[in-house]
Structures are given as C-alpha cells and as structure tokens.
UniProtKB/TrEMBL annotation:
<comment type="similarity">
    <text>Belongs to the GST superfamily. Phi family.</text>
</comment>
<feature type="domain" description="GST C-terminal">
    <location>
        <begin position="91"/>
        <end position="218"/>
    </location>
</feature>
<dbReference type="Pfam" id="PF00043">
    <property type="entry name" value="GST_C"/>
</dbReference>
<dbReference type="InterPro" id="IPR036282">
    <property type="entry name" value="Glutathione-S-Trfase_C_sf"/>
</dbReference>
<keyword id="KW-0808">Transferase</keyword>
<dbReference type="GO" id="GO:0006749">
    <property type="term" value="P:glutathione metabolic process"/>
</dbReference>
<dbReference type="GO" id="GO:0009636">
    <property type="term" value="P:response to toxic substance"/>
</dbReference>
<protein>
    <recommendedName>
        <fullName>glutathione transferase</fullName>
        <ecNumber>2.5.1.18</ecNumber>
    </recommendedName>
</protein>
<dbReference type="InterPro" id="IPR040079">
    <property type="entry name" value="Glutathione_S-Trfase"/>
</dbReference>
<dbReference type="InterPro" id="IPR004046">
    <property type="entry name" value="GST_C"/>
</dbReference>
<dbReference type="InterPro" id="IPR004045">
    <property type="entry name" value="Glutathione_S-Trfase_N"/>
</dbReference>
<dbReference type="Pfam" id="PF02798">
    <property type="entry name" value="GST_N"/>
</dbReference>
<feature type="domain" description="GST N-terminal">
    <location>
        <begin position="1"/>
        <end position="82"/>
    </location>
</feature>
<dbReference type="InterPro" id="IPR010987">
    <property type="entry name" value="Glutathione-S-Trfase_C-like"/>
</dbReference>
<dbReference type="GO" id="GO:0005737">
    <property type="term" value="C:cytoplasm"/>
</dbReference>
<dbReference type="GO" id="GO:0043295">
    <property type="term" value="F:glutathione binding"/>
</dbReference>
<dbReference type="InterPro" id="IPR036249">
    <property type="entry name" value="Thioredoxin-like_sf"/>
</dbReference>
Amino acid sequence: MTIQVYGNPGSPFSHIVYYALKELGLSYEIIQPSNSEEYKTPEYLATKHPFGKTPYLDDGEFHIYESRAITRYLANKYQGTKNSTILIPSDVQKAALVEQFISVEISYYTEPLVKILRQLIVMKRQGNEPDLKIVDEGREELGKTLDVYEKLLEGKDYLTGEFSLADLHHVPLTSVAFSAGEGDLWNKRPNVSRWWKNISERESWKNIVTEYKSENTQ
C-alpha cells in the first residue's frame, strides 16, 4: 500500500516529510484537506491529528502525526531498503548526535526563525503590518545560534559530519526565510553558507521546490 501523507503541499512542515520520503526513495500520495474547517471535525481529531494540525501519515494500518516523529519513523523503518541513503545511523553514538542536533534545531534555530517569519509572512498575509521589533529580536536570537553553528561546522559539510535527519529538518523553513529576503543571516557566515548550499541543493529538495513552488507558503 502506498504511503499517504495528509497535509498542505505548501506547508514547510509537510515539506519536511516529503523531503525525507524522497531522500529514502519512497513513493507516496498526498491527501490535501478540502478546507481549513476539516481540521476541526470530530472525525479528523479522532482519527488523524488530535490537535487539528498537519502533517499526518498513514502507512498501511499504522498512523502517525507530527513531522519530526514521522521522519524518524520513516528513517528507522525504510532507510536502506530503496537506496543507500542513511538518515539515522545504526551506530548508537552517531544516532545520538543526530538526535542532539534535532534538539538544537527545535530549541535554538526554529524558534527564532518562526518568530521572524510569523511577522514577515503571516502578519502580512493577514493584512497586518509586521512588528519590526519582534523581527529584529528574532534576527538577533537566530544570529547568535548561527554564530555557534559557524564554529560547529568548521571543517564539516554537515552537522554530524555526514548528511542526516538533523540537516534535513533545517531546510524547509530556512528556504522560506531565503524567499522572505533573510538570506544574509546565513550567507555572511562562510561555514554556515557552505552547509546551507550542501543541504539545499540536494536533488530531492530541488524536486520538492519544483513540484510545490506554486503552492509554497512564501
């Protein structure tokens, strides 16, 4: 049975799942909600995502929600079955380092990035003026994180040395940030810039950009 991903093809959080699927060489079907009210129906809350969000994945009789949980599941079940891509190493210590950087991404990277994008994209889309004070706060916080990344990436192409799920999780929202004109935060740091080039120019991601650019939330 084909894996089914229930989500919005324009959402960066759905793109995390699509990216993992493509990296692992897996075929999948996208099921898009007919409208935003569908997320609130008792059936959706009971059978898909109890918090009324996307993405959500069906793999036969197995159901799972939350993008990072989905990608971990896909890597643990399918990596090495369709191609040679390994997103979570089998070595316990190497796998722990991947988890370490996934935690870093959630805590220190995505939080300030979302703060910036909420103002520059979501507020504008709602017809409101962005709060530039909040934008500047987000830039300062993210800049401090990227200063640490600059040191951690010295002599390395990827966060743990090899491409992994930790790198993959950074790509969709960062791509939105570049489209919003925030790319200088990455470009002015040589190691970070090189890392971004490595993780954003992989064939799987370029395919996603091509396939879903007309629906991108940018």
